[in-house]
Structure formats: structure tokens, C-alpha cells
């Protein structure tokens, strides 16, 4: 049996980090998934004046303080991308490629999803549309694959799938210079619609069309409804009560993912509440 955590936290922005601090203080066995760079949005903030105790600080300065706090508390971030979370009754199964983590409770702090769904994306999900190239790569041996990427660090996934597929098209949705394997064809165009009857057959772009067997859309975050089947979503945000509980027992959410205002101090406070609620939930389960 794999190791089971008390709390799994998805996201390393202010909400996720605040949840991790409280899980540590409450002496819970937890794991936090995210990015060691924490959050790009925070580091780009010019000046933040509404975070109590951090007057006239830049996002970068606050980020450094976050890092110092994590170091002091001996909290490390696991840089793995969770693709799906399944409620299994007494615990949750968190899927990372072929690997599964187990946790008694889950806190979703994934932030706001950037990039709206493409026409045809939801309908063809699992029928040629996917969100993890390395997970599904074996299905595309000697086939044509298109990757729509929102982040430069996803170039590694493109390079990996190029060793398996017969042809890879790469569509960067970011501004940095692209450096992928020379066998990969870079398309600088805007995706509009995914076309296919029972499975993907082509991608329509603003100025062109690509015939393709599979399309991987690598966004910074998967929409919470796709991440956790059965999760109640209202107006593109996860619905929670004042204790940050979702409609799924043992699943909590905090930060921008639950709605406006999108502010760091609000997110940190909600992460605190979600963590206290998750700790109480874990305690109530262990007493049974």
C-alpha cells in the first residue's frame, strides 16, 4: 500500500502555502504540489500595499519572505503535476502520470485557470484531447501530435513525445523564445477549434488547419471541474462554505479558485481556514 498523507495541498500560491504552514503547525502529515518558483503572478507584482505588515513591498520581496518562511518551517514543495483527483471513500487518489498519491483530505488552491476552453475541447476530452503528454504518450506511437503550451517549461514534454510520435506540432502561447527539438514544427498561430466526430481529426487555427491524431493542452492549471470529477462549480469557481468545504466530503478549496476578490491576503486567510478544516476532518476520521 502506498504512503497515505493526512492532507494533500494542490497549489503553491499564498493559499496553498498558508495551508501548508498550518498543516505543519498542526503536526499533520501533508504534501504540497506546486512550483518552487511559487507563483509567477506574485513575482511580477510591482507593489503590494494591501497585505498587512508588508507595506510598499514588491511581489518579488514578498515571494522571498514566503521562501524564507518555508525554509524556516522545513516545508518543501513537490514539483509534480496532478492530473486527476478521485474521491475513493475514505481517501483521495491523486494521479501523477502512472503514479498515485493517497491522502485523507485534499485542499485545492490552484488559482485562476488561464486560457478558456477551446471549441470542441470538452466534447473530445479523452478522445484525442488530453492535458498530460507524458502520461498518454504511448497511445501516440508513430502518430501525429499537436501540443498547445502556455508555459515555456512544458517544452520538455514536447521533446519527450517527439521521441514517440511520428510528427509533433508545437504551438507556444507564451512570449519567451521557444527552444524545442529540431524535429518539432513550431506553429505561431492562434488555436480556435478542435475538430472531430468520435475522435480528434484536426485543429483549426486562425490562419491555418492541422491534421492531427491527438492534441495536448498544457495550461498552468487544469480547471477544477476536470481535476476533480463531481466537484460543484458555480460561475467558473469552486463553491465552498465559510469553512472552505466543497460539496465533496474531505475536499476543501481556497484562494482565487473559489472567487473574487483575487487578492493575496484573502487567499492566505482562506488557506489558513481550509487547513484548519482539513485537520479537523482528519481528526474526526481517525477517531472512527
Sequence-ordered SSE layout with sheet pairings:
Blueprint: E1 4-10, H1 14-25, E2 30-33, H2 40-43, H3 59-73, E3 84-87, E4 92-96, E5 99-108, E6 129-130, H4 133-136, E7 144-149, H5 155-162, E8 167-172, E9 185-186, E10 191-196, E11 200-205, E12 209-211, E13 214-218, H6 224-227, E14 233-234, E15 237-238, E16 251-253, H7 264-286
Parallel strand pairs: 1-2, 1-5, 5-16, 6-13, 7-8, 7-13, 8-9
Antiparallel strand pairs: 3-4, 4-5, 10-11, 11-12, 14-15
Summarize the structure.
This is Thioredoxin reductase. With 288 residues, the protein is α/β, with parallel strands linked by helices. Helices cover 24% and strands 25% of the residues.
What report would you give on this structure?
With 288 residues, this protein is α/β, with parallel strands linked by helices. It starts with a strand and ends with a helix. It contains seven helices and 16 strands. Strands 1, 2, 3, 4, 5 and 16 form a six-stranded mixed sheet that branches. Strand 7, helix 5 (155-162) and strand 8 form a beta-alpha-beta unit. The radius of gyration is 20 Å and the shape is globular. It folds into two domains: 4-114 and 221-286, 3-Layer(bba) Sandwich (FAD/NAD(P)-binding domain); 129-218, FAD/NAD(P)-binding domain. It has helices at residues 14-25, 40-43, 59-73, 133-136, 155-162, 224-227, 264-286, and strands spanning 4-10, 30-33, 84-87, 92-96, 99-108, 129-130, 144-149, 167-172, 185-186, 191-196, 200-205, 209-211, 214-218, 233-234, 237-238, 251-253.
Number of domains: 2
Chain oligomer state: single chain
Mean pLDDT: 91
Major sheet summary line: 6 strands, mixed
N/C terminus separation:
21 Å
Q: Helical residue percent?
A: 10-25%
CATH fold topology of the largest domain: FAD/NAD(P)-binding domain
Question: Beta fraction of the residues?
Answer: 25-35%
Poorly predicted runs are none
CATH architecture of the largest domain: 3-Layer(bba) Sandwich
With helices defined by DSSP (H or I, 4 residues minimum), what is the helix count? 7
Kindly report the name of the CATH homologous superfamily of the largest domain. Answer: FAD/NAD(P)-binding domain
How are helices and strands ordered from N to C? Answer: EHEHHEEEEHEHEEEEEEHEEEH
Query: Which class of secondary structure composition applies to the elements?
Result: alpha/beta
Shape: globular
